[in-house]
Amino acid sequence: MPETPQPQPHDPRSRGLRTKLRALLREVSKFGTVGAISFAIDLFIFNVLLQTGVETLLAKTISTVFATTVAFTGNRFWTWRHRTHDNMARQYTMFFVLNAIGLGIGLACLAISHYGLGQIWPELRTPLADNISGQFVGTAVGTLFRFWSYRRFVFRDTSPPDQGGSGQQSGRPTTNVATPSPVRDSA
Fold first, then answer.
1. What pTM, to 2 d.p., does this model score?
2. pLDDT of 59
């Protein structure tokens, strides 16, 4: 049974992989910076609203909407500015839909802590506990979902596949792709 050849240091495949990893690291760094700014805005507005007596889940929803607007702008015009931006209304709508799912993740963490576990342990109904569950735990889990979904569905990469950087084939075997049928595939 033949062994799969391992990429050598000067192999175009390993160079392409390093290039892709560096690009992904740049995206993660920019996404993190935009996220940190948005997080600070979210945290500030959430706590101001809590201090003014706004209900916990409503305060989190309002603060998230403001932070999301900042995040969309930063991600569209900085993090993924190199990606296709052919329909801003579609991107904006999709961004907010996916962010609503991320908000749901954060609200679920907050609701479980504040209303669920808070019935058993009253300490979990304090502003500090709300900040930990909603702002830190909920935001962390929601952020993982957001990065994946924004990259996959909102700021899609529609550029042609890299050919190894030197005009050579990428090392992937070519496949014949059948012409799609005019009948819509339901799968």
1. 0.59
2. 92
Cα 162 from Cα 124, distance rounded (Å): 51
Residue whose structure tokens are 């702002």: 135
Instruction: Say whether pLDDT at 166 is over 50.
Output: no
CB atoms within 10 A of CB 149: 17
Torsion, Cα of 99, 66, 135, 97 (10° steps): -10
Positions of E strands within the chain? none
Which H or E element spans position 164? none
Q: Are 126 and 115 in contact (CB under 8 A)?
A: no
Both tokens of 114, joined, read: 């504040």
State the Cα–Cα distance between residues 110 and 108, nearest whole angstrom.
5
Tokens 């392409």 — which residue?
A: 16
Contacts of 49 (CB under 8 A, 6+ apart): 58, 59, 62, 63
% of the chain residues with pLDDT over 70:
75
